[in-house]
Amino acid sequence: MDLEIPPLPFPLRTYGPDGHWSYEDGVLTGWAGPRQDRFVPPTGSSLEPASDAPRLLGAPDGDFQLIARVTVGFAAAFDAGVLYVHVGDREWAKLCFERSPDEPTICTVVTRGHSDDSNAFVVPGSSVWLRVSRTGSAFAFHASTDGSTWTFVRIFSLGDEKSASSALIGFLAQSPVGEGCVVTYDHIEFRTTWPKGLRDGS
């Protein structure tokens, strides 16, 4: 299924399990089903077929920033709303607003064959702004509690410049150990620039 979101200059397509994605009055809504996740354990050797989560992705050109306020109906540990970057079957990354495991937390996962997992900081409430940016083969993750002042979370590379330039970006919902959760994204914004500074709040 393809979905057009007016702030984004590219169409989005669904991947993985059915996320029941919908867009109305500026709000994107997606659902994760029971025990849906996208993670390749460092201790494991393969991505199990059931280890997948609903994604809604498109392909931007050039440098960019994708911004959204993410609200999660937290019900179980590790329920999350995610901004997602996909370069290849085993090269992808997640910027998560996740219940980890008891408090809403900014978390990141970068997968290069296997996934890592890192927590950044706790966020009060059930909403936060997330931002993913790209220049060349570099990607940056930021989060904000007010949508204005941004906290640097992580910078990393995925693939070479050619593969990174064709990356898919977008949205993911997950409920790895729970019975499912709903995620909404609003204040969606797309910028065709890399941030002026990664650590100065801009």
TrEMBL record:
InterPro entries assigned: ConA-like_dom_sf (IPR013320), DUF1349 (IPR009784)
Source species: Streptomyces endophyticus
The name this protein goes by in its record: DUF1349 domain-containing protein
Signal peptide region: none
One Pfam family this sequence matches: DUF1349
